[in-house]
Amino acid sequence: MPELPEMENYRKLLSQHIINVPISDVIVNREKSINMETDAFSKALIGARVVFVERRAKYILFHLHDGRRLLLHLMLGGLLFYGTEEERPDRNTQVEIAFGDHTLYFIGLRLGYLHLLSVKESEATMGKLGPELLDRRMTLERFTGLVKGRRGALKSLLVNQHVMAGVGNCYADEIAFEASLLPSALVQNLTTESIARLYESIQKVLTEATEIGGYMEMPFMTGDSVTGSYNNQCNVYDREGEPCLRDGGTIIKTELSGRKVFYCPDCQHDQ
């Protein structure tokens, strides 16, 4: 599932190509991916312009010139591709939005969705989310306040969108590894030093992953050599049975509260 780095990468790329370009056509191949009848959705968008692209947690918000917003959540398996008809990937698309001779293809929206909302509706959805971990206002002091009083496993805390927004399975495991903490470490038992180490690890992992395009499997457009560059940078995620790059131990895969977890049992600890 795309997380903060992947969606921030998409936000940057979208902002470079679709701002103020009138929407010339809309094709909906799966009506369940949108929140209204296909004809109404298309009619509302054709002629509209995107004036601003915002990322919040794992969401993308396309701010339209009339004040409404398109809210995108890719969920598991969702991808974006921007290009001409000749460049389009050989994949099923659920929604296509044309900006002149280029089209934004929404791929893999089996669980994901693209909803046209009012400002009030979109703000109600965003209001349920916790703070952004890379926001300049996210200091160690504020982060410590988010952690203090919480209970349960570290990974469960990191992926809780109501507490802190944007982290999912992959980066929760990468952050825990960077902090030398087990994903199963109990939050209520973390020392002040462990929390500080966790905060620094969050900043480092998310910043680095964002700068190199996250771990998406497909480029955003022809010639895009950035998107997905983090695929080869993961230390533990999807590396079951492989040697730990820090100490040579063997990466283990297990489950925690129904989520898959990857970690090194030799160099990750409860504190």
From TrEMBL:
It catalyses: Hydrolysis of DNA containing ring-opened 7-methylguanine residues, releasing 2,6-diamino-4-hydroxy-5-(N-methyl)formamidopyrimidine. Residues 2-106 form the Formamidopyrimidine-DNA glycosylase catalytic domain. Keywords: DNA damage, DNA repair, DNA-binding, Glycosidase, Hydrolase, Lyase, Metal-binding, Multifunctional enzyme, Zinc, Zinc-finger. One of its GO terms (molecular function) is oxidized purine nucleobase lesion DNA N-glycosylase activity. InterPro entries: FPG_cat, FPG_N, H2TH_FPG, Ribosomal_uS13-like_H2TH, Znf_DNA_glyclase/AP_lyase, Znf_FPG/IleRS. It comes from the Bacteria. Its EC number is 3.2.2.23, 4.2.99.18. The keyword DNA damage applies. Gene3D superfamilies: 1.10.8.50, MutM-like, N-terminal. SMART domains: Fapy_DNA_glyco, H2TH. The keyword Metal-binding applies. Its cofactor is Zn(2+). Residues 235-269 form the FPG-type domain. Belongs to the FPG family. This is Formamidopyrimidine-DNA glycosylase. The gene is mutM_1.
